[in-house]
Design goal:
This protein is mainly alpha-helical and 376 residues long. It contains 15 helices and seven strands. A three-stranded parallel β-sheet has the order 1-2-3. A two-stranded parallel ribbon has the order 4-5. The chain has a two-stranded antiparallel ribbon with strand order 6-7. The protein starts with 16 loop residues before the first helix and ends in a 32-residue tail after the last helix. The relative contact order is 0.13.
């Protein structure tokens, strides 16, 4: 991982915190963790079958398919909840329908598309993240449904912090508080309240983007777990299991990625990942390469070459959807988009001409400074 990644830490041997956390997996007693999971699920299972045992937030992708499969395998009666994505693809729709056909009840909350497109544009221009409303809704909509339906347990997927299992495993404080969600939801910088008054957005437009109060959460006792704390999480393995149960993958490597089995639901993801590259000098291909290196599937030299092949390309298309179509949805021209790109580009990381202008090739791609000077 590059040192430009936010919140990463390198030790005295220049090994990053992500690798150190992964090394600690060898010390985990996974059988004990699995038994702990069974105890947690039993604690929150509906005693008389009058309500759902848990909520599983679902995008329709490999991980949420895997989460649903595991809950069904363990005898849970989950309610699957989707916060509908910004620009749902055809393959994303088919994969959502596939989860339904596993044998579950399913709710889809689609926020007002007119307001959502305004937020997409605002978030892209203000914080360089077109997917901001999606990332908010992923963490608010399932919790709102849990409060409204009195469902006490939410089963999230990957434990991004790789440190603990969530409040349901805590002895003293098992409530899912707003602070806990904000910490793990990654909702930094732009706040929902900052949208008020912009682009004619009113509070009534932001209901689904707003967390329930801590009092509401506590009254129901809504709590959550990371399934990745209890089971050794591996996106590729999750994809294999999910494909065996009907998950559809893409026909080739996804643009900006190294694989064909993830981020298949939202056509805006190409823009989101490109802005990550502009800000920090790396994108999804680097993330995936590092995950596979840690698991012994790639040599580092091969991973570097693959990243060079696929990462950082101007997002002309994503999953076959043209950039102009996506920009047209949010009322932005290609020239405006280029200007926003330049504004969020970390110029220390990319080649500039003698006038300080970013240098792009004939495809619109930037060149990283000292790109070939990669330490061995």
């Amino acid at each position: 991982m590059p040192e430009t990644k936010p919140d990463i830490f390198f030790d005295d041997n220049w090994i990053c915190s992500a690798c150190r956390h992964f090394e600690q997996r060898e010390e985990v007693d996974w059988e004990a963790r699995y038994n702990e999971l069974l105890q947690v699920l039993d604690r929150y299972r509906s005693s008389d079958g009058s309500n759902y045992d848990c909520i599983v937030p679902c995008s329709g992708g490999k991980d949420s398919t895997y989460q649903v499969l595991r809950m069904l395998e363990l005898g849970m009666n989950p309610l699957c909840v989707t916060a509908t994505t910004d620009k749902l693809t055809a393959i994303g729709r088919r994969n959502i329908e596939n989860i339904k056909n596993l044998g579950v009840d399913y709710l889809e909350m689609s926020t007002n598309p007119v307001v959502r497109r305004r937020i997409n544009r605002l978030a892209l221009t203000e914080v360089g993240d077109i997917s901001w409303p999606e990332h908010v809704a992923i963490f608010t909509v399932p919790v709102r449904i849990a409060v409204q339906l009195g469902i006490r347990l939410i089963v999230w997927g990957e434990n991004s912090q790789n440190e603990y299992g969530g409040p349901a495993t805590a002895a003293d404080d098992s409530a899912l508080t707003r602070r806990w969600l904000e910490e793990f939801g990654g909702l930094l910088g732009l706040r929902v309240s900052d949208l008020l008054g912009q682009e004619e957005i009113e509070s009534r437009h932001l209901i689904q983007y707003t967390y329930p109060s801590d009092v509401e959460l506590a009254n129901v006792g809504v709590t959550g777990i990371f399934l990745g704390y209890f089971l050794p999480w591996d996106g590729w393995a999750n994809a294999l299991v999910s494909q065996a149960h009907g998950l559809e993958t893409y026909s080739r490597v996804v643009e900006g990625s190294l694989v064909n089995y993830e981020n298949l639901d939202n056509a805006q993801t190409g823009i989101h990942d490109y802005f990550k590259f502009l800000k920090y000098g790396f994108g999804r291909a680097t993330d995936l390469a590092c995950m596979h290196i840690r698991r012994g599937r790639f040599r580092r030299e091969d991973a570097i070459n693959l990243v060079r092949m696929h990462e950082g390309r101007f997002p002309w298309t994503y999953l076959g959807v043209a950039l102009e179509e996506i920009l047209d949805d949010i009322g932005m021209s290609l020239e405006e988009f280029r200007q926003v790109c330049d504004r969020f580009t970390n110029r220390k990381l990319f080649v500039q001409d003698r006038h300080g202008e970013l240098v792009r090739d004939e495809h619109g791609d930037l060149t990283k400074v000292n790109y070939d000077n990669v330490p061995g």
